[in-house]
Design goal:
By secondary structure, the protein is an all-alpha fold. The protein has five helices and no strands.
Length: 110
């Protein structure tokens, strides 16, 4: 993948291990094995908050920093605590406001 541009290489990467290896980030295989999808989603979320530089070297530096940050999130924590995916938020208490004026009483036979 050394002859590919950054964008071309990114299209070829498929697993968290591929990304970490490509960007030269040392990792504990047991952490990645359990959290690979969470790490990639967190990496994606971090990049989504950034304005990506046009310069390839600057973009590569940003990708390395954000992937390292995403990986470290799961070294220090776990998927249940980090709640990257929507499914982890499904059973949290929900707060809904219902105005009193929208509450009506239906009488049987009316």
């Amino acid at each position: 993948m050394d002859t590919l541009t950054l964008d071309e290489a990114m299209e070829e990467l498929v697993s968290a291990e591929d990304f970490l290896d490509y960007f030269g980030i040392a990792y504990d295989a047991s952490v990645v094995q359990v959290n690979r999808l969470h790490i990639l989603q967190r990496f994606h979320n971090y990049l989504g908050k950034e304005t990506l530089p046009k310069d390839e070297d600057a973009r590569r530096t940003l990708y390395i920093a954000k992937l390292q940050q995403a990986y470290q999130d799961f070294v220090k924590s776990d998927a249940l605590t980090e709640k990257v995916f929507k499914v982890f938020h499904m059973h949290e208490p929900q707060t809904k406001f219902v105005p009193l004026s929208s509450i009506t009483v239906n009488k049987a036979g009316a």
